[in-house]
Amino acid sequence: MNRAVLRQPQPRPGSAPALPSRQQARTEATRSRLLLAAEKIFARDGFEAARLEDIAGLAGYTRGAFYANFESKEDIFFALLERWVGQRISEVKVLIAQQESPAKLLRALREHYVQKTKDRRFALLSLEFKLFALRHPEAHARLRARQRRLRASSAELLRRIADVTGRRLPVSCLAAAVGFGAFSSGLSLEHSVDPSMIPEQDTSALLGVFFDAMLGADSAK
């Protein structure tokens, strides 16, 4: 006996997208609370020492609720990584849309790069996870795949910035994207180890010099 295939009704062209259900809204709220708790626990204890029970407890849930949303501690770290990079990209896109001239945009982007590096929590957590991944092949493979995708998004954004401002990057957009992240992370680490060797003022100055070296050349030259 043939069974009829049930199909979901398709929205009419031009109609508004369906609103999320209550269950979807609850799921998103649970994930957001778990992510916020994980960020705090990772910052306090580090990645390897952090316990799932502490993350779930801080969020007000059980281990069961954690596993209903994330497969592992690595999984929630990757979710944090994607959210963090996504926020940075969104902030830069807003700056691009707001500025009236290439010169003003470059100044705004330079200041944004310097100021964002002052928040060192995620840079240090990322460094710890990279060291963990180098000792664990499966985590290493997952990290490589995620980083390549996220770096590609950052590289595309840099290409857009270069086009809008008329600047010429001295290296490929992908290499520049990696360089911006690596340089700020390295300075964050050195400042955290010994602020007297590289104080905040010097850190900001070095970041500005690096930014100017990467986006200082006019494409017409």
Walk me through the structure.
The chain is mainly α and 221 residues long. The protein folds into two domains: 22-70, Arc Repressor Mutant, subunit A; 73-215, Tetracycline Repressor, domain 2 (Orthogonal Bundle), CATH 1.10.357.10. 73% of the residues lie in helices and 0% in strands. It has nine helices and no strands. Helix 1 packs across helix 2 (52-59), helix 6 crosses helix 7 and helix 7 (137-165) packs across helix 8 (173-193). The chain is globular and about 55 Å long. The protein starts with 21 loop residues before the first helix and ends in a 6-residue tail after the last helix. The model is unreliable at 1-10 (pLDDT under 50).
